[in-house]
Design a protein that fits this description.
- By secondary structure, the protein is mainly β.
- It has one domain.
- It contains one helix and twelve strands, in the order E-E-E-E-E-E-E-E-E-E-E-H-E.
- It has a five-stranded antiparallel beta sheet with strand order 1-5-6-7-8, with no helix packed on it.
Length: 161
């Protein structure tokens, strides 16, 4: 995964917050017709077969994050969200191809995210229930886990215990 600067966004209308916050995605300065959850586009990566965008909404008691996988033609393929945290995402690394590792401010927890090139039929994780309902029964393409919890078939990076 390579971090890129191809996308930008227009903010949500005033007064729209939380799960209802949406941003209008732009690619190379042009409207895409794609709307993502959150009010800030925090990270963007080029990955195999598309783009991984990280958006968030920072509210009084914490921060909510969404990881959205877009195809090369900018169709939303999958969305997943970790549990809300009390701080921002930090220490973003790339331990392997199509993988991210990161933590949250003021915690020792480390998270991993893998973009799976094909359908992933592994055991469901707690994060699977954090997918929007319209994606719940679709093939998963993003795998998100707390380090030491599970492994991902086909990925070579070591998972810390």
């Amino acid at each position: 995964m390579n971090e890129i600067k191809r996308f930008s966004s227009l903010p949500s209308p005033t007064g729209v917050a939380g799960d209802n916050a949406r941003l209008a995605l732009q690619c190379d300065g042009r409207a895409t017709g794609v709307f993502l959850s959150g009010d800030t586009l925090q990270h963007q990566f080029r990955c195999t077969g598309g783009y991984l965008l990280v958006t968030c909404y920072d509210y009084f008691d914490g921060v909510q994050y969404w990881f959205t996988l877009l195809s090369d033609d900018l169709r939303v393929m999958d969305v997943i969200s970790p549990p809300d945290s009390f701080g921002s995402m930090q220490d973003v690394g790339q331990p392997g191809p199509d993988m991210l590792s990161f933590g949250f401010f003021d915690t020792a927890d480390r998270w991993r995210l893998a973009v799976i090139s094909g359908r992933f039929d592994g055991p469901p994780s707690d994060a699977a229930t954090r997918r929007p309902l319209r994606f719940f029964l679709r093939p998963r393409r993003i795998r998100l886990w707390k380090e030491g919890a599970v492994s991902v078939p086909g990925k070579t990076a070591q998972i810390a215990s």
